[in-house]
Structure formats: structure tokens, C-alpha cells
Predict the 3D structure of the following.
Amino acid sequence: MKKKLNTQLISIAALAMVTTLLLMLLFCYNSFRQNAFSDLATLSRIMISMHENNSWEHVGEVANEDNIRLTILDQEGTVLYDNKADPQTMSNHIDRPEIMEALGHQVGKADRQSETLNKRTFYYASMLEDGSVLRIARETKSIFFSLFEYVYLLVILLVFLLILCGGLSIYFTKSIVDPLKKLANEEGALQKADFIKTGYIYPELKPFLEAMATKQEQMTENALMRQQFTANVSHELKTPLTAISGYAELIENGMVPDEKDQKRFATEIHKNAERLLTLINDIIRLTELDQREADVEPEKINLFVMAKECVRSLEMNAKKHHVTIQATGENAFIMADRNMMEELLSNLCDNAIRYNRENGTVTVQVLDRLDHVELVVTDTGIGIPLEHREHIFERFYRVDKGRSKSTGGTGLGLAIVKHILIKHHTSAQILSEVGKGTEIHVRFDKA
Ligand code: ADP
């Protein structure tokens, strides 16, 4: 990147220099020409006024001293007098542009390449009162050749400028690229954010770099969470597997001769196997939701009907916990993924049953409000202490580990709920009082 930027910057500088030089030359050439003609015009006027009291021969001699050629011609272009050559030997000049112009417009000018390559002759002709034409000419060094004399100076200047531009371009490129490089080398996301704030970076680059740093921070966090999750999963799976393996080994070795004990151990194995299955199911579901494999397929759903179905399917379970469960409210329509809504309802209701008290109640309420649909799951259970409330949606977070496990909890139910809520662009509000109960509110847009 540095090399490319440098080459580009230096090429631009070189191009700019060459164009400036060419334009300058053009400008110089033009002004040089104009000056040459205006000098000749002045000289020509002086000579005409000199001629009032002197012969052309005399004026010609004076002009000769200044290396100026003076020629007098008649209207036909025949040379009458010339201060540098014999008029007899000179051809007719009527075809010369400056003469033609002077005959038509009083004055005429022209410049021509001299016989010697590095010289140019400027001609100025003016018509006199008697109809004859005065032409004066001066030979000068060609402007390009004069410039060539200084060409070494120009080359030195160009080389110097190029070196200067090169240096500057290296400096500017460095000032863009180096902070980026340094940033890339910064280890943590925090150090990066700090560097963006304090290090010198072009302001225009900051938003882009900040976005990148945030993204990286999220990625690091995600990676960390995954790592932690994997560790937790292994641990959670190990417990029931160890139990299963242990009981099975005892039976295998004939160490449980009593039939009653055998049955008890088999029940334990069964229970732990069930627990493994629920755990694995929840883990798979969570991973699916995580990997966006499960995209929301929204359809119009009557949330009240769904709540009643959920209550019906959980009635047996509630009875086992000596809890009554009911659905109240009114028909209310939302756009949501059917499977996910069923999972959401059953997870919330399942918790409300499991963390309830003896003879408690669970109420699932569906309310069709003016601008939204509200779902409220209320229980009369143990409640959630304030300090735990922000954590219960985390994976494997349990307030009371013993109770969660003994009631068949995996610690993943609310993590699944959270994913579903995020996918439906909503969230849950928790109202809870320890020892009295919990209310979980979720708002949905109306269909
Ligand atoms: P679990 O499988 O352990 O129930 P969840 O993710 O469903 O896991 O819930 C996380 C924790 O939040 C639970 O362990 C429990 O401590 C607490 N919790 C969830 N719902 C309730 C509730 N209705 N009343 C009291 N505590 C609850």
C-alpha cells in the first residue's frame, strides 16, 4: 500500500511539474515575441522621425551600429535601399508577409527562422507617407535556445523538486499507514479503542476504525462466550453420564443383588438419561438459534389460542407440582414464528410451574392493547432476587442450582427465550418479589 501510494503521489507531482514547465515556456515565448515586436515598432517610429532631417543612408548607418537591418522598398516590393546589402542584388520583396501586411494595413510584422538554426529574425514594416515601405529587422537568439542555456538549472530544479516531493509523499504516506499498522499490532480491543482515541489518526479514518474495533471486540466477546459455553456443556453432560455409568457398573458387577435396589438404580439411570436428553436438546436448539440456521418464518398467530394450548399441554406437569395453571385474556394477533412462540410460552410457563410454591397458581394472560399485544406470565412462586434478575437469561445461570436440577431444569430455557425475543425484535420485562411471585411481560407488535 505504501509503495503504491508513494508512486501515485510522486507521479502526480512529476506531472504537475512538467505541465507547469510547458505552460511557463509557452507564456515566456509569447511575451518574448510581443516584446520583440513592440521594441521594433518603437525603433521604427524613431527612425522615421530621424529621417525627417536625415537621409535613409545616414539613418541606416546608425541602425547598423545596433545591428538592425533597415530596408526601404517601393510599393511594388523593389528594394530601394538596404543598410546591409546591395539593393541591386536583392530580389523583389512583395511576397514577404510583413510587406504584404504593411501595404494593406499600414504596419506588418513577421518572424522567421534565420539561416543559422539557433537564431530568429523579427521583422517590422510600416508604410511611409510617400507610399514606400520601411522595414526593420533584428536577429535574436531563439527563445528556446536561450532557455537551453539554462537547461542544467532547470534539471537541477526539477530533480530537487522531485526529491522534495518524494520525501513529502513518503512522510504523508507514513502518517496514514503507520497508525493503521500500529493499530493492527495492538493486542486487545480495549487498547485499540484507546489508541484510536489518543494516537494520531486522520479524523476521517476514525469512524471506520472505531467500527472495526467494536466489531472485533464483539467477536472476541463471542469467542470467549463460546469457549465458556463449551466448558459448561462438558461439565453439565458429565454429571448425569457419571451417574449412569456408576449405577450401570454396580449392576454389571452383581453388586446390587436386591431386586428393589436394582429397580431403584434403573430409575436413576432412566432419570439421568432423560436429563441428558433434555440437556442435549436444549444445547442443540440454542446452537441452532445462535447460528441463524433457524430464521424466523413469521405467520399470523392468535396468541391467546396458542396460550390456551400451551396451558392444556402443561396441566399434567402443573398437577405434579401441585400448581394450577390457567390462560386468560382475549384473542390477539401477532406476526411471529409459530414454533418459536410455542417454545417461548412453554419455557416461561414451565419455569412458572417449577419455581412455584405448593398450591400456587400460574396465569398466562394475553391482552390486545391499543397499539400492541401483551403477554404476561404470572406465578405465585419464590420470586427472583434483584441482583440475579439481569443474569437469568445467561446460559447455565441458575439462582438456585439444586432446585433447578431437581425439577429438571437445564439452565438454558431463558437463554433460548432471549434468542427468540431478539429474533422477534422485542424483550422481556421482569417484575418480581422474593417469596411472592414473578411477572414476566413481553410486548409484540400487532399483526
Ligand atoms: P432452568 O432450567 O434452571 O429453569 P432457565 O434458563 O429457565 O433455567 O432459568 C434460569 C434461572 O432463572 C432459573 O434457574 C431460576 O433460578 C430463575 N427463574 C426463571 N424463571 C423463574 C421464575 N418464574 N421464578 C423464579 N425464578 C425463576
About this structure: The chain has a mean pLDDT of 90. The chain has 13 helices and twelve strands. The longest strand covers residues 119-127.
